[in-house]
Design brief:
The complex is a heterodimer of chains A (about 525) and B (about 300). Chain A has 20 helices and 20 strands. Chain A has helices at about 55-60, 90-95, 105-110, 115-125, 130-145, 150-155, 165-175, 195-210, 220-230, 245-250, 255-265, 325-330, 355-360, 380-390, 395-410, 425-440, 455-475, 485-490, 510-515, 520-530, and strands at about 10-20, 30-40, 40-45, 70-80, 80, 100, 180-185, 215-220, 230-235, 240-245, 285-295, 295-310, 310-315, 340-345, 345, 365, 445-450, 475-480, 495-500, 500-510. Chain A is globular. In chain B, about 75% of the residues lie in helices and about 0% in strands. The longest helix of chain B has about 35 residues, at about 85-120. Chain B has helices spanning about 1-30, 45-50, 60-70, 85-120, 125-140, 145-155, 175-200, 205-210, 215-225, 230-255, 260-270, 270-300, 300-310. With about 300 residues, chain B is mainly alpha-helical. Classes of the chains: A alpha/beta (about 525), B mainly alpha (about 300). The interface of A and B includes residues 103, 109, 113, 158 and 175 of A.
Chain lengths: ~525, ~300
């Protein structure tokens, strides 16, 4: 009867406005957004946090938080239906049945109290008259298709028994079970490791081509969107600043914001100005056969390396590879079970009392989540002043205050922000405070554990720049931990690759990047190269 | 599961031992003794009585004797009800107290969950504020005030319900059960509201909505299991509280439960009776907390697996 017109749009959104009541400013979360999704295409929506990309999609389906009151204006047509004119009941018929959704965090998107089988079959039981036995057969089939091995055995398992990547496969199966026409994937790979991320993207691509699905793929990650999308929508502050074919956006970006976004992705080797010069400088840190055990597993397995003063060592690896544990063991936030760490020749792991205190002062850390690693009840001033007072660097309050102001300037924060609390700062500014705190004690070794992974790409670029400038100016030595190969490449002189607790590769960054020897390193490097296009 | 249960019970034994020891020596520190009365008995009578009940032996001797008897399951004779053992007396009172506690628990659960559910489905509206304000009042009103108030309103003004007794007149169980249960209903209302609101803000509820499920389905199938966790954890201590709280209610409504014996025993320095009821109640509290723990584990797949591996 009906022939599918390839150019006919499945979803058409015109002049969409979304406003949240109760926000102090009268700004729109989504402002005058218009776009269409054609049948069988993948539309990528990119933008930084707060750009309104998720809100746009949630508002179409009535999925914005029930309790926060909001107003939605505009037109949205899905196939023949006006989405904003539908009754709650008719909208529910479309949601979950004709439009499937995949969410960002597979850890929290599944109900921990229900088996995955029950959760995947739920839409089928709810929207159709299928019997439970038939639904089970269908679920097993679909779980196999999305790559859950032994699906028949695992169907009654609970979400916590699966890894993040596997859970995301379950969520995808759940979204596909009604054979929807449109799949909305909201940051489906952002919470996953690089290699898992590649699998999930391949899976979504496969599902799309097998079913001739239309897909909206929302992501902050330009590399991922470049890989998957046919057409791309760029959003900033609730507005669409640019839309076009994949090649137009990535090869000939017209809007300054798109250009800025693309420029912020680290694509190059470490800039020459920041290259490590002290080939003859002395060893600062010597890690020998370090081993950390959790329960009966080796989290860090016989790791050894040395660092010279002024050098930046990047450590890459997936979650669970032991890279954070390694850094925690070096600063003794975690007890090492075996091995030795020499800092300027002094054994760090066995020191006590005054020696340990002076060592602690010389080694400082910056953590991943800038919000939760700052005490919400302390002002920026108090946070930065604490290590100065703690290590007895300045007993006179006046000179302490002076020093804090200088540090704020060093990390690019205005003096006026001195007495504000962490929640009054943006993520990037919080990370600047954390960096100021870390350098306040004038350390020699800085350990940065995923310092930019919670940040937007433009902010990330600024923080990386700041770290490089500080390392050079203060002659710091830095261990830079990240899952992102491109970022590590931009920052590090040498790179160490960790997998299952072992250090599987260690070498000059560009050497490792051009000739990766370990299987995992190759996968990492390939991802970076494919995203660079 | 059985291993966890055994493990917890083993942990409970030292608790009981401490309770027994402390109570034993504390009540003997209290002034007066079981045979002091308004009109003093002749010294030789008291001496005879003390010899009969072996109260003339040194206190530590009495303590070890008592522990020995306890191991044999003997709570000893009551000092105030000659010829009757503590076990017998408990056996007459306990069923009534338990019955009262069960009704009160039913009141607490039904009213509490209903109020919590109403409030959580429409937070920050009248449907939330009204039950929560009532709940706050319920928490603030002590039973010894609430009981007489209910009696005044329903017993004396409206004359709808009997004001005392247990099983003597139709409906005489209603007011005591309400009096005892309402405060717990209030706590359960607040706990279930909080638990549900917490769960309703979780991402997996958004997933459920994205599936096109109806609101009741989301509420009952997806939100309730997680939202009830705080309520279930509270049930152990709550039931223990109901049992001890019933003493006050039994006194107000003249109910011949365990509470009456307990209160009288304390006034009369009926050492063995105080010990018997205290031990019984502590044992119940320990056991009920273990049960609440086990149910919490049973209902949470993640905890279930964790304990299986232990």
């Amino acid at each position: 009867m009906e022939t599918v017109d390839r150019m006919k749009s499945l979803l058409e959104v015109n002049n969409l406005f979304v406003q949240f009541a109760g926000s102090d400013n009268k700004e729109y979360a989504v402002e005058d957004v218009s776009f269409e999704v054609r049948r069988g295409e993948i539309l990528g929506i990119v933008g930084e946090s707060g750009s309104g990309k998720s809100v746009t999609c949630y508002s179409l389906l009535g999925l914005l938080p029930v309790n926060g009151s909001h107003t939605v204006n505009g037109q949205a047509r899905f196939d023949q239906s006006n989405l904003f004119g539908l009754s709650d009941k008719s909208l529910r018929e479309i949601r979950g049945k004709r439009i499937g959704m995949v969410f960002q965090d597979p850890m929290s998107a599944l109900n921990p109290y229900m088996s995955i089988g029950d959760q995947v079959m739920e839409p089928l039981l709810h929207h159709t008259q299928t019997s439970k036995a038939d639904a089970r057969v269908r679920v097993i089939q679909l779980l196999e298709e999305v790559g859950i091995e032994d699906a028949a055995k695992r169907i009654d398992d609970y979400p916590h028994m699966f890894s993040g990547g596997m859970r995301q496969r379950v969520v995808i199966a759940m979204a596909l079970i009604m054979e929807p026409e449109l799949l909305i994937a909201d940051e489906p790979t952002s919470a996953l490791d690089v290699t898992t991320q590649a699998h999930i993207i391949a899976l979504i691509k496969d599902a799309q081509s097998v079913r001739d699905l239309s897909v909206i793929f929302i992501s902050h990650d330009l590399g991922v969107v470049r890989n998957i999308a046919d057409r791309v929508l760029v959003m900033e502050k609730g507005q669409v600043v640019e839309q076009g074919e994949n090649w137009q956006i990535f090869d000939r970006p017209a809007h300054p914001y798109t250009q800025k976004l693309l420029a912020a992705i680290p694509k190059t080797a470490k800039p020459n100005a920041f290259q490590f010069q002290g080939a003859n400088s002395l060893d600062l840190l010597d890690v020998k056969n370090l081993e950390v055990r959790y329960a009966d597993q080796l989290a860090v397995d016989d790791v050894s390396f040395t660092m010279r003063r002024g050098e930046v060592l990047g450590i890459v690896g997936e979650s669970g590879s032991g890279k954070s544990t390694l850094s925690k063991a070096i600063v003794r936030l975690t007890q090492a079970d075996r091995g030795e760490v020499l800092f300027e020749g002094v054994p760090l792991l066995t020191s006590k009392g005054e020696v340990l205190r002076s060592l602690r002062k010389k080694v400082q850390m910056v953590f991943q989540d800038p919000y939760s690693s700052l005490n919400p009840r302390m002002t920026a001033f108090e946070i930065i002043a604490e290590p100065i007072q703690l290590h007895g660097l300045n007993t006179d309050p006046k000179s302490t205050a002076k020093k804090v102001v200088r540090l704020m300037g060093d990390v690019g924060l205005p003096e006026t922000a001195l007495h504000r609390y962490p929640h009054e700062f943006s993520g990037g500014q919080c990370q600047r405070i954390a960096i100021a705190r870390a350098i306040a004690a004038a350390p020699q070794l800085l350990i940065a554990d995923e310092p930019v992974s919670a940040l937007d790409v433009t902010v990330q670029a600024e923080i990386l720049e700041l770290l490089l400038v500080l390392v050079k100016a203060m002659n710091l030595t830095m261990i830079f931990i990240s899952h992102d190969m491109a970022v590590v490449r931009y920052v590090s002189d040498r790179v160490a690759v960790m997998a299952s607790g072992r250090l599987v590769e260690l070498g000059e960054t560009e050497q490792v990047f051009s000739l990766p020897s370990h299987r995992y390193t190759r996968a990492l490097v390939d991802t970076v190269k494919s995203e660079l296009g | 599961m059985i291993r966890i249960a055994l493990n917890r019970i083993l942990q409970g034994i030292p608790v009981l031992f401490v309770v027994i020891t402390v109570t034993f020596f504390l009540i003997r520190q209290a002034p007066g003794g079981p045979f002091d009365a308004e009109r003093a008995l002749p010294p030789e009578v008291i001496k005879n009585l003390e010899a009969t009940y072996r109260l003339d032996a040194p206190v530590y001797q009495q303590y070890f004797d008592y522990l020995g008897n306890l191991l044999k399951g003997d709570f000893g004779p009551s000092f105030r009800y000659p010829g009757r053992s503590v076990t017998e007396l408990i056996a007459t009172g306990l069923p009534i107290t338990l019955e009262l506690a069960v009704y009160a628990l039913a009141v607490a659960l039904v009213l509490g969950l209903l109020a919590g559910l109403l409030a959580a489905t429409r937070p920050r509206t009248l449907q939330d504020y009204l039950p929560m304000a009532l709940a706050m009042t319920g928490i603030c009103l002590p039973t010894f005030l609430l009981g007489p108030l209910l009696v005044l309103v329903f017993g004396i003004w409206f004359e709808w319900l009997p004001v005392s007794g247990w099983g003597y007149a139709p409906g005489d169980k209603i007011l005591p059960s309400l009096t005892l249960g309402l405060a717990y209903a209030a706590v359960i209302a607040r706990l279930s509201r909080g638990g549900l609101l917490e769960v309703l803000s979780q991402n997996y509820i958004r997933t459920a909505r994205a599936k096109g499920l109806s609101t009741p389905t989301i509420l009952f199938r997806h939100a309730l299991p997680g939202g009830m966790a705080p309520v279930i954890a509270y049930l152990g201590p709550a039931i223990a509280g109901l049992l001890t709280g019933s003493f006050v209610v039994e006194t107000i409504f003249q109910i011949p439960g365990l509470g009456r014996f307990y209160v009288q025993a304390a006034f009369n320095r009926d050492y063995t009776m105080i010990m018997g009821t205290t031990i019984l109640l502590s044992a119940l509290i320990v056991v009920l907390n273990i049960v609440a723990d086990l149910v919490s584990i049973k209902l949470n797949p993640q905890l279930r697996q964790k304990h299986r591996h232990e």
